[in-house]
């Protein structure tokens, strides 16, 4: 009796913590929330650098990489959505939870969390710089005769806004900000390509590589790949966004999530392709690393576009930051045993925003940050060993192949889902799935095997987490 009471108390305490953490505290989102959350997370600083990336890639490779990146990342996003509830009775609310399911609790945590933090913290630093630069550009255009103000002060102004918004409790509480940010991203992307198209092709436009040596062209090409990778960086918060959508066995969250995510990708295509192609077509290799810098007139339109960028990156910063807040607050409460409180949240979030502001002030190199974080966060995933997780040791020997296929597919998706060059791994996931379904067609006994597998997985979850709430 005492043992059961102790377990119930522990479960109640765990539920209270989950109800306090920003990712799991609210599950009332509508399907369209996932649309503007995904647009806000993905479209942003990256779209402004795409014409510059095209100048480094050239027409053929540039178009191919843009299209392949869009298709492949859409497919891997679908995989993430499907795997959110692939284990009966459990939701993978956070990206690292899926990694732990694949690689084990400890190994999965150490493999996934560092890379997730690199992307999320890196994006926040880049957006801190982008917000400051866009504010400065707005000031310079509106008041060309005013005294020049250092970029540092504009970054501090942008950070002060984030200091206030950072204290909103959860992802659903910033939905209005995210919606405004998504509308702004569509607006300034349209301004960017429409204004460029209106100016037309510039005199003496040159489509050759800017670098005059093979070595220089090679490194420019690699930098451009990092820029494109950064532009499709929204996968890191997909599971966190889906966690806010209500779910039940009859109405799983994957259907509304996928509907919203697919619509978001259509918006992404409308933003990315015109900006990249028209920007490069009009300016050639003389385009700036931020397309809005290349545009000078009409001044009022350029000022408006830069202010739209500021509003958008305010929302984008919060989308990525709230996932970091969740990681930090989880560690503080569950590992270091701090009591959940307003003061803990206030100090943690204020310090985080202050640190990203400090790094942004020290390294205000917009394009360099894009390529650095894009390459540094995406490239290592290519070299993950194709390991399989043996966490389901209770599977019968005859069930090993089906369990291995499931784990192998999960391992590939965790290892490669963010990398634009993951077409090979994505094909292998497809091949593994095809193996599973074809073998089911050829051998009727596999139906029973899969049913037993599903039941045993469900029993394991209930045994390990009897009070799990969805």
TrEMBL record:
InterPro entries for the chain: AA_transpt_TM
Location of the protein in the cell: Cell membrane
Residues in Amino acid transporter transmembrane domain copies: 28-384
Segments crossing the lipid bilayer: 31-50, 57-78, 107-130, 151-168, 174-194, 261-281, 301-325, 346-379
GO CC annotations, alphabetized: plasma membrane
Pfam families assigned: Aa_trans
UniProt key word 4Fe-4S: no
UniProtKB keywords: Amino-acid transport, Auxin signaling pathway, Cell membrane, Membrane, Symport, Transmembrane, Transmembrane helix, Transport
Family classification: Belongs to the amino acid/polyamine transporter 2 family. Amino acid/auxin permease (AAAP) (TC 2.A.18.2) subfamily. Belongs to the amino acid/polyamine transporter 2 family. Amino acid/auxin permease (AAAP) (TC 2.A.18.1) subfamily.
Name of the protein described by the UniProt record: Amino acid transporter transmembrane domain-containing protein
Origin species: Populus alba x Populus x berolinensis
């Amino acid at each position: 009796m005492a043992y059961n009471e102790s377990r119930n108390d522990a479960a109640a305490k765990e539920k209270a913590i989950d109800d306090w953490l920003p990712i799991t505290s609210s599950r009332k989102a509508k399907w369209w929330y996932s649309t503007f959350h995904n647009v806000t997370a993905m479209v942003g600083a990256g779209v402004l650098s795409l014409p510059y990336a095209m100048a480094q890639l050239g027409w053929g490779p540039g178009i191919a990489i843009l299209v392949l990146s869009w298709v492949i990342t859409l497919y891997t996003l679908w995989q993430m959505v499907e795997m959110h509830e692939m284990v009966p009775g459990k939701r993978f609310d956070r990206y690292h939870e899926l990694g732990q399911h694949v690689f084990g609790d400890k190994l999965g945590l150490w493999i996934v969390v560092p890379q997730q933090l690199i992307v999320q913290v890196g994006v926040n630093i880049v957006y801190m710089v982008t917000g400051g630069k866009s504010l400065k550009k707005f000031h310079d255009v509106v008041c060309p005769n005013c005294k020049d103000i250092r970029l540092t002060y504009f970054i501090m102004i942008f950070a002060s806004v984030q200091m206030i918004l950072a204290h909103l409790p959860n992802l659903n509480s910033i939905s209005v900000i995210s919606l405004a940010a998504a509308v702004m991203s569509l607006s300034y992307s349209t301004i960017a390509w429409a204004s460029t198209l209106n100016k037309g092709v510039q005199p003496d436009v040159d489509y050759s590589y800017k670098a005059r040596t093979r070595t220089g062209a090679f490194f420019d090409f690699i930098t451009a790949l990092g820029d494109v990778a950064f532009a499709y960086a929204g996968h890191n918060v997909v599971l966190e966004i889906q966690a806010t959508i209500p779910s039940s066995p009859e109405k799983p969250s994957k259907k509304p999530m996928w509907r919203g995510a697919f619509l978001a990708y259509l918006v992404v295509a409308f933003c990315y392709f015109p900006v990249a192609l028209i920007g490069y077509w009009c300016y050639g290799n003389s385009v700036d690393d931020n397309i809005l810098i290349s545009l000078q007139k009409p001044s009022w339109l350029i000022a408006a576009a830069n202010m739209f960028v500021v509003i958008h990156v305010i929302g984008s910063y919060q989308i990525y930051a709230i996932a970091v807040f969740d990681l930090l607050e989880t560690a503080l409460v569950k590992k270091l045993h701090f009591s959940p409180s307003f003061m803990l949240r206030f100090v943690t979030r204020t310090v985080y925003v202050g640190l990203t502001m400090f790094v942004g002030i020290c390294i205000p190199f917009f394009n360099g940050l894009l390529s650095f974080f894009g390459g540094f966060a995406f490239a290592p995933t290519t070299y993950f060993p194709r390991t399989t997780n043996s966490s389901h040791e209770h599977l019968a020997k005859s069930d090993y192949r089906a369990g291995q296929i499931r784990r192998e597919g999960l391992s590939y998706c965790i290892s490669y889902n963010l990398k634009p060059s993951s077409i090979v791994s994505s094909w292998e996931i497809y091949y593994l799935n095809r193996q599973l379904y074809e073998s089911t067609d050829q051998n009727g006994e596999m139906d029973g095997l899969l049913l037993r597998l599903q039941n045993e997985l469900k029993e394991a979850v209930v045994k390990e987490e009897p009070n799990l709430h969805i």
